[in-house]
Specification:
single chain, about 250 residues, mainly alpha, MetI-like fold, 2 domains, 10 helices, about 80% helix, ABC transporter permease, MetI-like_sf, cell membrane, MetI-like
């Protein structure tokens, strides 16, 4: 029933949008009707520039999220398990965490140029923090009785980490990765749009909108990015419910 309601809301929104465009309430050169956008979306797969841009964006997204996951989990485990490290690093983390990735585009271009390295680095930077903070926070939520029991049975530190700690923090880590997946996509497309020089969905939409005035193509590419984000989010939710459903996985503030 909830799915039907969500679809009904989406269909209603599209109908209102279509009616507003057809009745001349909005400028169709700026906001074309959804029927035209959906037709253009269906034809995107036949455009080599879009296909190349989509592959570049998705591949860069995967690499950036993988890097953010490795760095975020490792750093979170270190900060959450060593109080002195957490005390020393907290001011640095709190300073760097709110920095918008797009504000660092000039620095990244100076270091890496306008190649894919720039968007991957900035996206990984932006996506690391939710994973790091959730991992660090989750260590404080591990049941101390489990750890004490493991110590009583003289379980090695490595076995405690792999058999007690990591399974306990799993829901939090997956939640952090799921949040970071969306952040990564936003940072990748935003950097492509603003930095230029590198192929991708952001650069494709920018060129179509500024050079060709094809807002239907721009919106079609946006629909693709939105659908990709929805699929990724649904995938992580499925993983969380299937394999790490024993914890709440609340996001650390």
């Amino acid at each position: 029933m909830s799915l039907v309601r969500k679809l009904a809301g989406l269909v209603g929104f599209l109908l209102v949008w279509e009616a507003a465009a057809r009745l001349g309430l909005v400028d169709t050169r700026v906001l074309p009707p959804p029927s035209e956008v959906l037709v253009r979306f269906a034809l995107l797969g036949t455009e080599p520039r879009f296909v190349a841009g989509a592959i570049s964006t998705v591949l860069s997204w995967f690499i950036a999220l993988l890097c953010a996951t490795v760095v975020g989990v490792a750093s979170g485990l270190l900060l959450g398990s060593v109080p002195l490290v957490r005390l020393i690093s907290t001011p640095i983390v709190e300073f760097l965490r709110p920095l918008p990735a797009v504000a660092l585009i000039p620095l990244a271009i100076a270091l890496f140029g306008t190649d894919a390295q720039t968007k991957i680095t900035l996206a990984a930077f932006a996506a690391t923090w939710p994973i790091l903070l959730n991992t660090s926070y989750a260590l404080g939520e591990v049941d101390p009785r489990l750890l004490e029991t493991a110590r009583c049975f003289r379980v090695s530190r490595w076995r405690r980490l792999t058999g007690v700690t990591l399974p306990s923090i799993g829901p939090f880590v997956v939640t952090g990765i799921r949040i970071s997946a969306s952040i990564t996509l936003i940072a990748i497309v935003g950097t492509e749009f603003l930095a230029g020089g590198s192929i991708g969905l952001g650069q494709y939409a920018f060129l179509q909108g500024t050079s060709g005035g094809r807002m239907d193509v721009v919106l079609a590419a946006t629909v693709f990015a939105g659908l990709f984000g929805c699929v990724v989010n649904a995938g992580f939710l499925a993983v969380q419910r299937r394999w790490v459903s024993w914890g709440s996985g609340e996001v650390a503030a």
